[in-house]
Amino acid sequence: MKLENPWKQNPWFESVAVAQERARKRLPQPVYGALVAGSERGQSVSDNEAAFAELGLAPVVAGQQAERDQATTLWGQEISQPVVISPTGVQAVHPDGEVAVARAASNRGTLTGLSNFASKSVEDVTATGARTMFQMYWTGERDVMLQRMQRAQDAGVVGLIATTDWSFSIGRDWGSPEIPEKVDLRTMVRFAPKVATKPRWLWTFGRTGTIPDLTAPNLAPPGEATGPTFFGAYYEWMTTQPPSWDDIAWMREQWQQISGGKPFVLKGVCRLDDALRAVDAGVSGISVSNHGGNNLDGTPAPIRVLAPIAERVGGDIEVVLDGGVRRGSDVVKALALGARAVLIGRAYLWGLAANGEEGVGNVLDILRMGVDSALRGMGLASIHELTPEHLIVPDGFHRTLGGPVPAPAPR
Ligand SMILES: Cc1cc2nc3c(=O)[nH]c(=O)nc-3n(C[C@H](O)[C@H](O)[C@H](O)COP(=O)(O)O)c2cc1C
Fold first, then answer.
1. Which atom of ligand 1 is nearest the CA belonging to 344?
2. Which residues partner with 172 through β-bridges?
3. Is the CB of 345 under 6 A from ligand 1?
4. Alpha-carbon gap, residue 348 to 101, rounded angstroms
């Protein structure tokens, strides 16, 4: 009889916080630091999670529903749970990176977002069968943007996410991790002391005979196999003239022509006036988001600005939220305040770092179970029944940014 090692860690984790702790232990410090991210003093990144904890739920004591449904539709796609993978650019934490994430999302019946700074090509990701939303920053010349859109369309993506909120904020009070220009022998020797203390992480790559890839294959010029390095890509982005609302409308129009009308989503909306302008620009959806608090620090948590935006434009376009979602009850709170679904970032990155594809699936399952138990606790049979009345919202919780400015009080 083969005895199981009783001290072997169960790879399944019970909460996103446990996945994060495993990721922290497993990853070399600079790699973990790149996932933690945040900006400036970290006000926004902390508020994203803290704001969810200010909202309460009101349970029933009997009359709970035996069957509870969380399937919905988003941007023309059926999804089995109201949780979608947000595009993130640092998935070289695992050799399978975005491909593992896409497989997990696809197995669970939801969509995956793929960053244009991803470590895997859009062709490799769509080849998994995952329904993929390709994300683009406003970077490069227009003809280059068109080539990238065409490539994504040819690869079979189901929609485009434009992320245009990045403010190039530099300087974190806790210090930024060092990211090498590329991973070659010299870099490996230099990083060796930090990496050698994490043999399990090293082994994940050792097994596949690969090293972490820090290039951006989706930004490769046509006909070239290799994309620019992360820094090359960042430089192009930094030196591109910021977009105007006409540029957003142009991008949407081009995507409409290239894709034959697949959804175009603008990610990073925090203000009511911007949400209205996005509707005017013809977008199919927005993500109410502060880029996970990695951007303009001091931006309130998206959950604080969601309700005024969703109330105003939720009838015209499909509104989602991202930022700070760590448990099923967070998903339920966002839905109750008007989001059609949520996108997750760090939660699945922790899962990926902790246990690859299964870890990402584990995170999606935790969120599904959390949504289910919240619905049960509140006596609801479906996520579609959620309204603001199901929440306990403290006074002054909501913020309307870019809304009507009240007239000054008479002196
Ligand atoms: C490490 C990291 C990399 C990210 N890269 C991108 C990216 O390439 N494109 C993008 O649109 N958003 C990017 N984001 C933002 C996420 O898509 C999402 O808005 C954010 O992570 C949501 O907050 P959460 O991490 O609290 O869930 C990134 C976020 C993190 C943490």
1. 27
2. 40
3. yes
4. 8
Instruction: Confirm or reject: Cβ of 268 under 6 Å from ligand 1.
Output: no
364-377 per-residue burial string, b: 16 or more CB within 10 A, e: under 16: bbbbbebbbebbbb
**Any atom of ligand 1 within 6 Å of the Cβ of 100:** no
For the chain, the three-class secondary structure string (H helix, E strand, C coil) is: CCCCCCCCCCCCCCCHHHHHHHHHHHCCHHHHHHHHCCCECCHHHHHHHHHHHHCEECCCCCCCCCCCECCEEECCEEECCCEEECCCCCCCCCCCHHHHHHHHHHHHCCCEEECCCCCCCHHHHHCCCCCEEEEEECCCCHHHHHHHHHHHHHHCCCEEEEECCCCCCCCECCCCCCCCCCCCHHHHHHHHHHHHCCHHHHHHHHHHCCCCCCECHHHCCCCCCCCCEHHHHHHHHHCCCCCCHHHHHHHHHHHHHHHCCCCEEEEEECCHHHHHHHHHCCCCEEEEECHHHCCCCCCCCHHHHHHHHHHHHCCCCEEEEECCCCCHHHHHHHHHCCCCEEEECHHHHHHHHHHHHHHHHHHHHHHHHHHHHHHHHCCCCEHHHCCHHHEECCCCCCCCCCCCCCCCCCC
Contact predicate 160/259, CB 8 Å: yes
Helix axes 199-208, 185-196, angle to 10 degrees: 140
Nearest CA to ligand 1 atom 15: 291
Q: Is any atom of ligand 1 closer than 6 Å to the C-beta of 292?
A: yes
Question: Which ligand 1 atom sits closest to the C-alpha of 117?
Answer: 8
Per-residue pLDDT tens for 176-199? 887 666 655 566 556 565 666 676
Express each pLDDT in 225-283 by its tens digit. Answer: 788 988 888 899 999 999 999 999 999 999 999 999 999 999 999 999 999 999 999 99
Global pTM value? 0.93
Measured from the CA of 36, which atom of ligand 1 is nearest?
31
